[in-house]
Amino acid sequence: MRDKKLVAPSMLAADFGNLASDIDMVNQSDADWFHLDVMDGVFVPNISFGMAVIKAMAKHTSKPLDVHLMIVDPDRYIQTFADLGADVLTVHVEACTHLHRSLQSIKAAGMKAGVALNPHTPVSDLSHTIADIDLVCLMSVNPGFGGQSFIEATYQKVRELRALIDANDASTLIEIDGGVTDQNATQLIDAGADVLVAGSYVFSAADPSSTIASLSAQINS
Ligand code: DX5
Ligand code: ZN
After folding, report:
1. Closest ligand to the CA of 180
2. Is there a domain that residue 152 lies in?
3. Best of 90, 200, 202, 212 for a ligand 1 pocket test (most atoms within 8 Å of beta carbon)
4. 143 lines ligand 1 (CB under 6 A)
5. Is residue 67 part of a domain?
6. 87 CA distance to ligand 2 middle (Å)
7. Is the CB of 178 under 6 A from ligand 1?
8. I need a labelling partner for 100 at 20 to 30 A (CA). Which of 27, 52, 116, 207 fits?
9. What is the pLDDT along the chain (221 residues), one digit of tens a residue?
């Protein structure tokens, strides 16, 4: 049997006034991870939430925390996010001058090491580090905001990344972030994706929990 394909709701699209109840919904749902988007207003043109909010959220979460850092110089905060309880810590390749060192630091702090690629960044940027990466997050929108349209060129990138991972006998997971819905989920999995982040698709649904359940069922059928 193939490995389970994962659904990671992005809490960026949750109701920030009722975070505990949205977290509880995800806890009770078929979701696999919490995807937490940290934005600094410099690497991306938006500011989301930071340590204090994640600390408060982590008191309620009962599933792994997949933390996506959209910040410059992320090395400064690796230990901080480990202490907050991050299970996967993803940095952007465009923000890391010494990516190999950043990956080693994330793993030394006890977390899985993730690397995100902006839509314009080629998969080949990871050709010498892929064996050291636990997860590659392919941005399928320009990072900074939820609710944007999926970039169709992502499918080809997933196929290229899958080929790179297989050629290196690596076990790196492929995560897709941005504009994921039931309309592109199957095609993404068929191209080789393992983890789908979904923000507005889940939280703008009339029934977020059943939307998570049907997305999970769709990609595991
Ligand atoms: C975008 C964030 C995404 C975002 C996805 O910069 O990294 O995780 O929350 O939201 P949707 O699914 O609405 O595109
Ligand atoms: Zn994200």
Report:
1. 1
2. yes
3. 200
4. yes
5. yes
6. 15
7. yes
8. 52
9. 679 999 999 999 999 999 999 999 999 999 999 999 999 999 999 999 999 999 999 999 999 999 999 999 999 999 999 999 999 999 999 999 999 999 999 999 999 999 999 999 999 999 999 999 999 999 999 999 999 999 999 999 999 999 999 999 999 999 999 999 999 999 999 999 999 999 999 999 999 999 999 999 999 99
Number of separate domains in the chain:
1
Is the separation of the CB atoms in 10 and 37 below 8 Å? Answer: yes
Domain of 168, CATH number, reads: 3.20.20.70
Both structure tokens of 13: 């699209």
Residue at 1 is within a domain:
no
Going through 44-129 in order, the beta strands assigned E by DSSP cover 65-70, 88-92, 112-117
Catalytic positions, written as ranges: 37, 177
d(CA 50, CA 53): 6
Copy the structure tokens of residue 48.
Answer: 């989301």
Other beta carbons less than 10 A from residue 41's beta carbon: 13
pTM above 0.85, yes or no: yes
Q: Which domain holds residue 182?
A: 6-219
Q: Under 8 Å CB-to-CB from 203, ≥6 apart: which residues?
A: 9, 13, 14, 15, 22
